[in-house]
Write a structure and sequence with these properties.
The complex is a heterotrimer. Chain A is an alpha/beta fold. Chain A has eleven helices and 14 strands. In chain A, 60% of the residues are buried. Classes of the chains: A alpha/beta, B mainly alpha, C mainly alpha.
Chain lengths: 418, 305, 475
């Protein structure tokens, strides 16, 4: 029995993942012979170019030449990008996915560009106090020229005053609080749209397409969730929909009691949650109790492996990355190395890509400083971003052209409906 | 009316799990006067072992064995695995601190808790694992009581919990080991002088408590599907509360305490608001504590002068 | 320490001089010969040089964290170490202090009081809160008090999260008091007597002064009648009551003092972070404060201070993989040196481990061609990379090795004599293998792993804490 238990533990550990690593594990050696210089038009850091500077590095369709991309200039040696996220603690399921995608992005970038950038990882456990300590660590580390994260909106707010004096750019991949790009945090960028973009999309769809008359909104008491719910609720009410609002702690084990309060008139249950697995449980309990309302989830629920309730709707800021043919190779490479993923990973890939691209551009231009990188981040354009649309930032740091896509789950598959 | 009964079922399911965890806390406290904060992690490991067995058997959708064989196997593996883990924890983290100030084992327990959580993260990654129970035992299989339908899974959980609790009560009251446990709990030195091997009795207590926690882990996996590295911390807190409310050190008290908390959580969420279910539960507990400071079943501690 | 009676002092002289043995004896003797006050001043002077010695704001920030921990630990020490009351809701005072300061110094309710006033108000209010929360302690004993105080701690966090929609009868709409899950941002820095504390270094010195003041104050309190009364209460509450001590008042006083200290620390914390959020006050932080107190030795002021420093600094050191590796190998080697006598045995074990490593590498060279290039990093890392066998699928092999390692280590602590000497090289190699293969790839998880292991090892090795007095509980 003991043997069985040990085997079971081991089996659970490798359940569903193939651990074969593809190729060398990012052992891109730095070609320090500065024979080749960058092909881009050099610019002096003090004059920002009008219009976007094109730095079109990034994963394109076919697996391009790995390892023999242009040699990085000698300045680029030893630089790194920091990443802060909840890698342990109760939000680790989110943080570890983000971390894995960041590592993945780093490997590919180094392989494609012949650089030897490094990633400095720091665990914040979603606590702003730890985030500020970590931020100090990044600021004090002269090699770090840009930061990916932190994950939570509160953390992003807390670290802003620390990064600002040093002009250290930080690119958020999951902090969606609208006020972050309201001007108080000049070094903050984010690759995902903020709550103001998603709320109206969801509300409009619910009213216009689904004809909802009675909606039950349940938030999970996080900043993301309450923010989104607070935007959607008045929009629905304006449209004449009856709205019931409740909230449940994120770590709640059992939703049965809450589910049993869903009345039969309820058309839609809106779940702006972060943990897709919880929503799956919720839907199972709805089924168990014979509730017929449709579940409508926000982008936090976009996770084909975790949330697959039949007939549910999920909104997302990107077209389904697993369905895009251009990204198939990338997705396959990631899944082989790290396993399945949900909605938090791809934005982290994009954010890391932005950071690395900006650092590379800065050191190719000869100015290896945080101010230069900050400017580069502001000007960067990634044409074939993993998120399906060209990625560039507006003046506030928000990603331009944010659009939300609505999916419907049919037969376990996410089908784009709008 | 059926709404009320529905909540009763919900509450009993949840309460059974809390009761099993609370029993582990109470038993260990009764014998060692120790608050075993690592107990929640033992429960988490039990849930993972159950998941492991499920995965080895091909997963919930397409298992190699029929559900009727697979589920007891999961329980058995988890219970034994957790039991052994509990014994190991006692042996290495608590035994050296037997005679230390009472507060020292708390930190040792916290250390064990950190270690096990991190080990779970390392071995299983942070992904939330799913038992996918409806694939194994569909919701349609169940018992109809009027307009109410109670799924088989919940019945299974409640019945198993009851069986385990009855078994425990019989063990403690009828067997020699039970008698030894009661004696050691009453006065460890005297029990040792009477020829009882206290070390073995204590190890047995940890084993039994952890076995129950392991069973609770599998139950949670079956009913609530989500298994992840942090679940022990949260459930441990509730279990600890239940144990104290029932009178810590008291076995029937732990059972009643657990059921009370489960029911309170269900009814509060159903009739008041899910938002404040935690607060309501705690308020009820405080009320109980203020009325009976030693818990529901606890005997007021006699102070020897 | 006040001398209770000259006889006791004289009687202990022999004990004091005899205890100093070994290489460091002269140093220890001189050090302990210096009166406590001077020793404390010397230590604090050294600490005060920290911002000068380093130009990394990170290090100073860790120092700030350490001081915050120190203040909290001192306060908790009063409640737990002196009065013997198990308060699991201590974090609520910290949070209350932080939020009160935030409310009085930000745009949340539009009040911006001067810091002199705010700090006094915060301390007073938190002391009052401590008094109120201490009221149940009169009737509840031991672990029941623990659960009630735990409840208060949870309630505080819940209130912080939910009080952003408070419906007041005289207000138009729901009032946002605590900012909900988003917390309160934009908090004013502390401005005392014209000096604005804005940088990390400024707060470092502010906290240093506060810490010194508090330590001195608590020291005098300990030596006073109240301190003795608390200790009597801790040792035996019934006897204390019989001797006429006002037990209830003492308990409430302990809560109030502990609360006041935490409130002050919370206010400074709010200013340092320029914001307060509910996530700052989770149970994990409470556990760390308790760890600080107990590791240092509950009831001993210097012990608690050192415990706080360790708890604040250690996890930060473990963040950097290189340092974590150094600590890991350092601890393992240190443990071997301490436990293996004579030297020949130690040398044999180490040699055996090294040889075993090369043997394994040779044996697996066929099965595992070196997939990765030599590990980047310093000399130590590269040497280790050359010595330890590197499997291609590091994750799976590493996991299996880890699962084998833990029982192996536990088993080897149970072995004695030659069996242990023979088993050690294998276990040591396995440990190095697991570290290099798996653990070094996951720094954040490893950090928690090592922290947990260290807590267990430290408590089992020295249950009374670093500077606590060994005590035996009679049940």
């Amino acid at each position: 029995m003991l043997v069985l238990a040990v085997l079971a533990l081991a089996a659970a550990g490798c359940g569903g993942e193939d651990d074969a690593t593809t190729g060398d594990t990012g052992a891109a050696t730095a070609t320090t012979d500065a024979a080749t210089t960058a092909a881009e038009t050099p610019e002096t850091p003090t004059e920002p170019t009008a219009g976007a500077e094109e730095t079109t590095t990034g994963p394109t369709t076919e697996a391009e030449d790995t390892g023999d991309g242009q040699a990085a200039p000698a300045d680029c040696d030893g630089l790194s990008v920091g990443i802060a996220g909840p890698f342990t603690g109760d939000a680790a399921s989110i943080g570890q996915e983000q971390l894995n995608w960041a590592r993945f992005a780093l490997e590919r970038f180094n392989a494609d560009n012949g650089t030897n950038f490094a990633l400095v990882e720091a665990d914040t456990q979603l606590d702003p106090a730890q985030a500020t300590t970590v931020a100090q660590q990044f600021v004090s580390n002269g090699d770090i020229l840009a930061v990916v994260g932190p994950a939570g909106s509160q953390e992003a707010e807390a670290v802003g005053p620390i990064f600002e004096p040093d002009n250290l750019a930080y690119i958020g991949m999951s902090a969606t609080r609208t006020s972050l790009t309201g001007g108080d945090y000049p070094t903050f960028f984010r690759v995902v749209p903020n709550d103001d973009a998603q709320g109206p999309t969801d509300a409009t769809y619910m009213v216009d397409e689904l004809g909802a008359q009675n909606v039950f909104i349940i938030d999970d008491q996080t900043s993301y969730s309450t923010g989104l719910a607070d935007i959607v609720q008045p929009l629905l009410e304006e449209a004449g929909v009856t709205v019931t609002r409740d909230s449940v702690p994120q770590d709640q084990t059992d939703f049965s009691a809450l589910v049993s309060r869903i009345s039969d008139d309820t058309d839609i249950v809106f779940l702006p949650w972060q943990l897709a697995a919880s929503a799956q449980l919720f839907s199972q309990q709805m089924e168990e109790q014979g509730k017929t309302a449709t579940i409508f989830g926000s982008d936090g629920l976009f996770s084909p492996d975790d949330f697959s309730a039949e007939g549910a709707y999920v909104s997302s800021f990107a077209p389904d990355i697993t369905a895009l043919p251009e990204q198939a190779e990338l997705v396959e490479a990631y899944t082989e190395q790290y396993g399945e993923f949900g909605t938090f990973g791809p934005p982290t890939y994009a954010a890391t890509q932005v950071a690395l691209t900006a650092v590379l551009a800065a050191c190719e231009a000869g100015d290896v400083s945080r101010e230069a990188v900050l400017e580069q981040v502001g000007d960067v354009t990634i044409t074939d971003s993993i998120l399906g649309a060209p990625l560039t930032f507006d003046a506030n740091g928000d990603v331009e052209g944010a659009q939300f896509y609505i999916f419907r789950i049919e037969g376990g598959e996410y089908v784009l409906v709008e | 009316m059926e709404f009320f009964v529905q909540q009763l079922v919900n509450g009993l399911t949840l309460g059974s799990v809390y009761a099993l965890i609370a029993l582990g806390y109470s038993m260990v406290y009764g014998i060692l006067k120790l608050l075993n904060f690592a107990h929640g992690e033992v429960y988490m490991v039990g849930a993972f072992i159950g998941y492991g067995v499920l995965t080895m058997a091909g997963g919930a959708a397409d298992p190699v064995l029929p559900a009727a064989v697979l589920v007891p196997l999961m329980f058995l593996a988890a219970m034994i695995g957790s039991g052994l883990l509990g014994v190991a924890i006692e042996r290495f983290a608590y035994r050296p601190l037997r005679d230390a100030p009472r507060i020292a084992p708390l930190i040792s327990a916290v250390g064990v808790s950190f270690f096990l959580q991190a080990a779970a993260l390392l071995l299983f990654t942070a992904r939330i694992r799913n038992y996918d129970t409806p694939e194994l035992i569909p919701f349609s299989v169940g018992v109809e009581v009027g307009p109410l339908r109670i799924s088989l899974v919940r019945i299974l959980v409640i019945v198993t919990a009851v069986v385990l609790m009855v078994a425990l009560t019989l063990l403690v009251s009828r067997t020699r080991l039970g008698k030894a446990m009661r004696a050691t709990a009453y006065d460890r030195e005297a029990a040792a002088m009477m020829g009882i091997d206290t070390d073995r009795v204590i190890a047995a207590t940890f084993f039994i408590g952890s076995v129950l926690a392991g069973a609770a882990g599998v139950m949670i996996g079956l009913v609530f599907s989500r298994v992840f590295h942090f679940m022990g911390f949260l459930a441990g807190l509730k279990g600890f509360t239940a144990a104290v409310v029932g009178g810590i050190g008291n076995i029937p008290g732990a059972m009643v305490g657990g059921l009370l908390i489960g029911l309170a959580e269900a009814y509060a969420a159903a009739y008041l608001s899910s938002r404040f279910s935690e607060l309501v539960v705690f308020t009820i507990l405080i009320g109980v504590m203020l009325v009976r400071p030693s818990g529901l079943f606890g005997t007021p501690a006699l102070q020897k002068v | 320490m006040t001398k209770i009676g000259t006889d006791e002092w004289v009687a202990q002289v022999g004990e004091r001089t005899e205890a100093y043995r070994g290489l460091t004896a002269p140093v220890r003797r001189t050090w302990n010969g210096i009166p406590l006050g001077w020793r404390f001043a010397a230590a604090m002077l050294l600490v005060a040089l920290l911002p000068v010695a380093t130009d990394s704001s990170y290090v100073v920030r860790v120092g700030v964290n350490a001081f915050l921990f120190g203040l909290l630990a001192l306060g908790l020490n009063v409640v737990v170490g002196y009065a013997g009351l198990l308060d699991l809701g201590y974090i609520a005072f910290y949070g209350f202090g932080a939020y009160t300061y935030a409310l009085l110094s930000s745009d949340q309710i539009g009040v911006h009081l001067p810091a002199e006033l705010t700090l006094i108000v915060v301390v007073a209010l938190t002391a009052g809160l401590g008094y109120v929360l201490g009221l149940p302690s009169r009737r509840l004993l031991g672990d029941y008090l623990a659960i009630v105080t735990l409840f208060f701690g949870q309630v505080f966090v819940q209130l912080a999260i939910h009080l952003d929609r408070l419906s007041l009868p005289w207000a138009d709409g729901p009032v946002n008091v605590t900012g909900g899950p988003n917390g309160i941002v934009g908090i004013d820095p502390i401005r005392l007597v014209g000096v604005t504390f804005s940088s990390v270094t400024d707060y470092f010195y502010l906290l240093l002064v506060a810490f010194v003041a508090l330590a001195v104050g608590l020291h005098r309190l300990t030596a006073s009648r109240t301190g003795r009364a608390w200790r009597a209460l801790r040792e035996d509450p019934l006897a204390a009551e019989q001797m006429g001590l006002p037990v209830n008042r003492l308990k409430l006083l302990a809560f109030a003092v502990g609360g006041a200290v935490a409130g002050f620390a919370g206010a400074v914390f709010a200013a340092v972070q320029v914001g307060v959020f509910p996530q700052n006050f989770e149970t994990l932080l409470l556990i760390m404060i308790y760890a600080a107190v107990i590791l240092g030795g509950a009831g001993s002021l210097p012990g608690v201070a050192i415990g706080a420093a360790v708890i604040a600094v250690f996890p930060e050191v473990l963040r950097t993989p290189d340092y974590a590796r150094l600590i890991f190998y350092g601890v393992v080697l240190g443990g071997l040196v301490a436990l293996l006598r004579p030297w020949s045995r130690l040398a044999a074990v180490l040699a055996g481990t090294v040889v075993l490593g090369f043997v394994v590498r040779f044996a697996t060279a066929a099965a595992w061609p070196d997939a990765a290039a030599v590990a980047p990093g310093g000399l130590v890392a590269r040497a280790l990379g050359a010595w330890v066998a590197t499997p291609p699928n590091a994750t799976t092999v590493g996991n299996v090795a880890f699962v084998l390692l833990v029982p192996a280590v536990l088993a080897v602590t149970r072995l004695r004599g030659p069996a242990r000497t023979w088993a050690l090289p294998t276990v040591l190699y396995l440990a190095a293998f697991v570290w290099e293969t798996r653990l070094v790839a996951e720094p954040s998880v490893t950090r928690q792993l090592v922290l947990g292991a260290i807590l267990v090892v430290m408590m089992t090795a020295r249950p009374q804490g670093l500077l606590g007095t060994p005590r035996v509980e009679m049940l």
